[in-house]
Structure formats: C-alpha cells, structure tokens
Amino acid sequence: MLPRPLDSPLARDVAQAMIDGFNRHYRLFRTESARAKHRFETCDWHGQQRAQRERIEFYDLRVRECQKRLEREFEAHKQPMDVWQQVKLHYIGMLVAHPQPELAETFFNSVSTRILHRSYFHNDFIFVRPAISTEYLETDDPRAKTTYQAFYPQPGALSDTVHAVLQSFDLRCTFEDLERDCHRVARAMLNEWGADKPRPNFQVQVLSSLFYRNKGAYLVGKIINGFRELPFALPLLHRTPGTLYVDAALFGEEDLLILFSFSRAYFMVDMEIPSATVQFLRSLMPRKPRAEIYNALGLAKQGKNLFYRDLLWHLRHSTDKFRIAPGIKGMVMLVFDLPSFPYVFKIIKDWYPPPKDTTREQIRGKYQLVKQHDRVGRMADTMEFSLLAFPRARFEDDLIAEIEKFAPSQLEISDRDGDGQIEVIIAHAYIERRMIPLNLYLQEAFDAGPDDAAASAQLEHAVIEYGNAIKDLVAANIFPGDMLWKNFGVTRHGKVVFYDYDEIEYITDCNFRRVPAPRNEEDEMSGEIWYSVAKHDVFPETFGPFLLGNPRVREAFMRHHAELLEPEFWQQTKARIQGGEVIDFFPYGVHRRFDVNGGVKGAPELPDPFADISEVPVESNDSGGARINSDLGE
C-alpha cells in the first residue's frame, strides 16, 4: 500500500535528481536529432551516420550517470521501502506538466531497476503501467511549432498548397525546380485521390519536423477529405550538394509501413512532444504497434518498454504455449515463439558444434553492430532483454528440454518472487519480428510443382528479393557470412530480410578472391582445396554449390544475380565504400521515383476534383451556425 503523507525530504531530492537526469538525457537526444537538419543541408553523410550510431548509446550513458549520482549523493540502494514509494509519488507530481512524461517514466524504471532488488519490480516502485496520460499533450510555447500543421487548398490550387508545405520547413537549400516538383506531387495526389468530390473539411496535415535518415529527408502527412484520410510521404534528396528535389510521392498505409520498417535505421526527427508525433503516425499506420513507432524514432527504450507491456497483456489474454520455432535449427541460436504473438525469442547457446568458432561475447558484439549500423531495410532490428520471466505453464516440455540441453546457463525455473507461481526465467534473449524463413517459403513453391503459375511467381520473387537483399547489405558495407536461405526471412510485405548475425563482417574487412586455377589434374579432381585461405578471404565463385542446388532456383538466380558469383562485383563495391562513397538506398520501388516515370509521364490530363470546392454546400447545425463535415469521433 502506498504511503499517505509525503514526509521524506530525501525522497523528493532523489526524485528531483532522477528527473534532472532524464531532462539532461532528452535535451542531448533532441539536440543531436535537431542537428540532422544541418547535416542534411550540408550533405554531411558520414556525420549523419556517425550521429545515428552515437545517439543509440545516449540512453544507457545517462542512466549510468544518474545511477552513480543517486548512489554517491543519497546511497540509494540503502534507502528503505517507504522512501522509494515516496520517490515514485514525488516523481509522478513532477511529470504532470512534463512534455515527455512517458519517456521520463521509462527512464525512472531503468534507473531504479539498476538499484533495487528484482522483488521490488512492481506497481509500488516502478511504472508497470503509465501514470500520466499523454493524450492531447501539446507544447505551451507560443513561439514553437505545433506537432503538425494544417494547410487548406484553394480551389484548383493544390500545387500552391504543396509549395507552401515544402517551404514551411525552411531548408537552407535551393530546389532544382520547385514548381516542377509541386506540380508532380499535386498530380500524383490527384491520381491517388481519384474521382472523390471535395468536402468542406478538405485539408493537408503535415508533421512540423522532417524525418532524416541516410541521405534523405522525409515529409510525412495526410490528406483529409470527408471521411477519407490518405497518408503520404515525400522523400527529399540532393541532386547536387545544396540542390534539392522531390524524388517520389508515397501514399497509403502500406508505403508508410515500409518506410518505417523494423528493418531500417532509426529516423532523426526533432520532437518536443514525442507522444503527439507517435499519435499522428498511428493515425497513418493504425496496424503498427506504438512500440515499433517509438523504435523508428530512435526512442528504443520506450519502444522496448511498450513492447513488454504488450507482451504481458497478450499473455494475460491468451492460452497457447511457447514452442520451438518452425524451421531449421541454428548452430548458435535457440529460437522459440508463441504462435499467437508475431515475434520470435532467440537465446545464445552455451556451446556450438564445429565448424563454428565463436563466443557469447562475440555474438553479442555482432548484434550490437547491427543495432548501430544502417540496416537498409535488410536486417531485422532486435530488442535485448535480461531476466525475462514467464509462467512455466506456458512452455511446452520439448522447449524446456531444448533449453536445458543447449543453453542451461540461460535458464532458471523457480518461484524466485515467492508468490507461489513457478516461472521460467531467461537470463538473456533477443526478440525480433517473426518472418517466414526463406527456405520454407521456397519449399512451398517447390511442393506446388513447376506447373503452378502462382508458385513459380513466388519462387521468382523470392530469388530476386534474396539477391537484392545481399546487394543492399553489400552496399551498406555488410558481408552476411552465412548466406544460406534459412538465415533470411520474408516479411508480410514480401521483403527478404537477413536475421542471422553471428558471422557478419564489414565488406571492407574482407578479401574477395577468385579461385586459383588447379595446378594439375590431381588438384582438379581432388575434393580438397589446393590453395591457401586466410581468415578474411572470400571466394564468391564457391557460393553456387551451397545456394543453387535446385535447378529452378539456379536458373532464376543466374538471370537476375549472376554477378554475385563473381569477385569483381564485391571488389568494386568494396572500393566504392573505401573511397568514401555513401551509397543510396530507397525505401520504395524504383517505379515510384519521379525521375523514372516523370511522376505521371504519359498520363492523360486529369480534372482537379477540388477545383469546385467553393461550390460544396456547408451544412448547418441546430444552432444556426456553420458545421463542417468531419469523421472526428465517428
């Protein structure tokens, strides 16, 4: 039970120290994110990559700083239960008018769980549920921009509205041809909108900050007309340094889900009220969990916190059991899942059979490398957890036996909390989005046979996507190492994503060689290699026998990706990276780019359905005033 009187000055001082620690963290986080605008304007791509990597470390650094301060000034770990209860209550009071209360609650949890014993991890001492609502939270600063801005197109002047939207971001660059780009975007919007007639609430709402990632800046918003809302995003790129153009127009939830995918690097975006930005993005992508949106914005600890709450909620309302995940078992990772929950849980095994030669620390290092690297839409993001506890009754016996056999150091089964419930406690695990293993996806096509047109199309798509995934990874300076089909997965959007990281290396650390010619007939007939191989030597010609045993796969692969079997492809890309080039990646298809299809090249002229908006009657409400049609609350 929580104490009634707040009579401990020490508790208030501790709470103040914690909120000071969080404010310092978010001030530094926001400052670094805001600097992305200048780096974009000046084409400082290496600086952008460096900042994206370094920002990931900010949170843990600030948590450790705060923990050390609490121990140094207050001997926090020695304080009794009633003091810590009051600390939390004082902290809640400090969040009532705070612009980032949900992030501050998570920061409190991170600091306090480093200090308190695990038995204190419940409602009295940490924020198991949020205490402060973030609904309708907005800045009080009259000089600051609101989270989003609304623009109201005049009849027949949608292009002018696009012009006003683009100019509102005050980028210190010139557009190559702003009028052309505005016309292209307006035409694309009209194409998407179709023949819908205008309604009195017709407007364009745009988030006030651009989203920066890699070499692009993304304008994100939605068009509202009557009961219909159309999400959209406009990628802005440099044609030459300092000269911008709109590269494409993306529309609808599916396009934005790919843009904000879990397999891409985190955005940098300046947010005073992150919860308001997340709420706006949820209106564009209602199927995307809030946890993944926070992750995409670089707020990974908040995403992790929300994910865990979602997981506990799901466990409470489901009855299926954790099981060994379908697919070929890995040599390094033990993988399990809950069929009704769209994620997989990965545990590093205690030992690895030959030829694996690695350690737990090296594997964790590879996963950290991926976390900090640009994942270019081809590597799944992971959440790292320690001391995950689940009811024993939710685990299949076969799974428990598997963990006991391969990762006993990571397993504890006990009533450690003393509440009478036996739990399975996993010492360390990675959690990532579940995908269809690519080898199973291909097997479906094999089983259907070559005469099944749909299956043949599935096989062709899988092979094309697999090769594209490898090419994207190579361009991002990542050599996958183990390129077997089982180490890739297929997302629900049909993208092929890599998810086995224990053998990845930087392309620039590899030496790509051609297989030397046999010295004699004995070499040629031998099953053993006749040439020396150093640690980082890679022979692309040898990939074929391991990957292309199926004739249908081989035929498709050689038509689309034969260069992957030649060392020259790898050597040339390595040379480009070593030369300082930051290679372009596009989170949308080539067909969406205006440079490829001119936006609406060859399309007939379209009438502007909004040209007669002034003629749409305005309905009256019961009090005699004007009323605008709106789907608010419908």
UniProtKB/TrEMBL annotation:
One of its GO terms (cellular component) is cytoplasm. ATP binds at A325, P326, G327, I328, K329, G330, M331, K346. InterPro entries: AceK_kinase, AceK_regulatory, Isocitrate_DH_AceK. One of its GO terms (biological process) is glucose metabolic process. Its main location: cytoplasm. GO terms for molecular function: [isocitrate dehydrogenase (NADP+)] kinase activity; AMP binding; ATP binding; phosphoprotein phosphatase activity; protein serine/threonine kinase activity. Residues 15-318 form the Isocitrate dehydrogenase kinase/phosphatase (AceK) regulatory domain. Bifunctional enzyme which can phosphorylate or dephosphorylate isocitrate dehydrogenase (IDH) on a specific serine residue. This is a regulatory mechanism which enables bacteria to bypass the Krebs cycle via the glyoxylate shunt in response to the source of carbon. When bacteria are grown on glucose, IDH is fully active and unphosphorylated, but when grown on acetate or ethanol, the activity of IDH declines drastically concomitant with its phosphorylation. This is Isocitrate dehydrogenase kinase/phosphatase. It comes from Ottowia testudinis. The lineage of its organism: Bacteria, Pseudomonadati, Pseudomonadota, Betaproteobacteria, Burkholderiales. The gene is aceK.
